[in-house]
Each structure stands twice: as C-alpha cells, then as structure tokens.
Amino acid sequence: MIKHNFSAGPSVLPKSVMEKASKAVLDFDNGLSILEISHRSKSFVDVMENARSLALELLGLEGKGYKALFLQGGASTQFLMVALNLLEKRAGYLNSGTWADKAIKEAKIYDDIYEVASSKSANYNYIPKGYDIPEDYDYFHFTTNNTIFGTQMKSFPKSPIPMVCDMSSDIFSRQLDYSQFDLIYAGAQKNMGPAGTTLVIVKEDILGKVSRKIPSMMDYKVHIGKSSMFNTPPVFAVYTSMLTLQWLKDLGGVKAIEEENDKKARLIYSEIDLNPLFKGFAVKEDRSNMNATFTLENENLKETFDTMCAEAGISGINGHRSVGGYRASMYNALSLDSVKALVEVMSELESKA
Ligand SMILES: *Cc1c(COP(=O)(O)O)cnc(C)c1O
After folding, report:
1. Is 15 a catalytic residue?
2. Could you say which of 59, 75, 193, 211 would form a disulfide bridge with 178 (CB–CB 3.0 to 4.6 Å)?
C-alpha cells in the first residue's frame, strides 16, 4: 500500500533520495560504504562542499558573506550556541511557540532576555505583530514556522539589529529575500534530510563581537575555519541532505517547490474550512503552509476517522499533545497526491456522518 507520510519530523524524503542513500550504504566509493569511509577522504570532502554550496545557492545567498555549516546537536543546540556567540548585553526574542520559548529559556542562562511579543496566552494560535525591536540590542530571534501550532510568519519586521531565526520546519519551502536574515538554523529532519545534522547559515560579519570565551565545539568561527569539519561530521546525514538539496535544485529550486507547497496548502485548508466536521487551529492569516493543524468538531468521530486514515495509508497526522487533534505536515517531499488522499478521507467522513 502507498504510504502518505504526514509526520512532523523526522519526515518524508523523496523516494529517489532514499534509493541513492541506500545504495551508498552498500557502495559509495569503490566498494566502500558511506558509513565506513573517512570523512577526510576526497569523496566525502566533496559531499560536504557540495552540500554547503547547494544550501547557499538554493537560498540565493552565494557571494553575500554567508557561510553554511552542517553541525550536530539539533536545532536545540542552536538555542544556546546562538546566545554564546552573539549575546553580549541583551537580545530580543519573539515568543511565538514552544520552540521559541525553549530558545528563550536557553538564552536566559547567559543573560537577560527581552520578549518583544508573545502569543503564549492564546496557546500560540497566532503570530504576534506590531512590536518594536530595540536598536541597541545584540540581535532579534524568531521562529519562521511554528511546527507544533501550525503558524508561519508571512512577513518580517525591518530590524535595526541582526536577525536570527529558527527555520527548522520551513527552510527551502518558499521564496524569500534570505539576505534579510543574518543567521538561519534548521534541523535537517523536517525539510532537508534525516535526523543527525543541523544546517547553520551565518553572515560572517556578525561574529567575533562577544567578550566571553566560547568552547570550540560551540564556536561558529571554529567550525567556519575548519570548513564544517572541526570534528567528525555526521557523514550519512550530510550526504542524504546533499542528495535532497540536489533533488530540489533539479526540480527547479525553491521557486518550483513553493508552487507545489501553495497548492497543497490551498487544498487542505479549503477542506478544513468547507467541511463542517473540522476546525482549523491557527488563525487564518497566519496559517502555515508546512504544518496544518485542525481538530474534529465532534470527538465521537475520532475512531472512525482514524480508522479511515489508516486504511488509506495516511500516517503521522496526530496533533502534538499541546494542541490535540490533527497535524498534517506537508514538507517539500510530500506529494500533492498525498494531500489529495487525506482530503478525500476527510470528505468521505462528512458523507458518512
Ligand atoms: C523540531 C524543531 C526544533 C527542534 O529540533 P531538534 O533538531 O530536535 O533539536 C526546533 N525548532 C523548530 C521550529 C522545530 O520544528
């Protein structure tokens, strides 16, 4: 049976990528597996360089003073790494979801954090807007897409200070002027590859301004100096991410995938709005194109709906415990056909009820 994988992360990857990655496990270079070659071998150094340059190319950031790194420790390690590398006096954070809140908690270990705005009291069902960003702060931190609540920033404030963002769940999904951001980080397992590596894209000129000593593994400058090979990188995760980035480039890049992502989002949200059995969680204007969150109006239908979904091969749509209901994650590699399959089940439920 065809599986429709709506998992929020780790999540669906293109089939062709999975096939190439599987082959490389058996034979990547002259009979040697990607899992057993040296990360200093020419064939892997080429993979790392290719992955780094594809990331910058796809975001339109080549030749603009940015460096791409593939690090470990997940996006969660970036919560503290950002603070260690950039926080001197004070920073401003937008509290738009659980991940943003966690980033604030980590940064608070080092200094006083100013929350420029928060939607916590509304269980994060919208993106705060109309706030001011103090110009004497070190940086402004925000989450572009709130994976758990299904909200996404559609526009970005003009910031007088460096803009730092967690783009874990919508990087490479839409066209933006990425040069408005000074540091972007994203765990690979949402929209780029398997778990195990985190992409960091940083404008070099914002670094080197704090007075504290930074442990080597936590220091962006150290990783940049060693071309993202300061220690053994997660070779398989980097290789598979590179394959996914190459897949995206061959498809026509971010512009082409954005059109697909728009179609998928329009389809699911129109069903949520037109089908009286379902209700969207996030306010309409802030709805995420990546994670659609919704609930059943009548909880008694849950068992029927869950069974119908399972029978149609739909997997991974359970909502996060802090929201309940359902969450359909529609990352780049999820096809429009998968969304059609889900929408069909939703409308079938309506005809049955
Ligand atoms: C999943 C997620 C994280 C956490 O990523 P890890 O790699 O598990 O640390 C952080 N931020 C956002 C927006 C996420 O979706």
Report:
1. no
2. 59
Residue 169 and residue 96 in contact, taking contact as beta carbons nearer than 8 Å = no
Task: Please confirm, yes or no, whether 99 is among the known catalytic residues.
Answer: yes
- Pick from 147, 291, 320 the residue to mutate for probing ligand 1's pocket: most ligand atoms within 8 Å of its CB: 147
CATH topology of domain 253-352: Aspartate Aminotransferase, domain 1 (3.90.1150)
- Give burial (CB, 10 Å; 0-12/13-18/19+) of 137: buried
Query: pTM for this structure?
Result: 0.98
Per the annotation, the verdict on 337 as an active-site residue is no
Per-residue pLDDT reduced to its tens digit, 59-114: 999 999 999 999 999 999 999 999 999 999 999 999 999 999 999 999 999 988 99
Domain(s) labelled CATH 3.40.640.10 in the chain stretch across 15-251
Q: Domain 15-251, what fold?
A: Aspartate Aminotransferase; domain 2 (3.40.640)
User: Is the CA virtual torsion 217, 222, 227, 231 positive or negative?
Assistant: negative
The residue from 20, 67, 138, 166 that is catalytic is 166
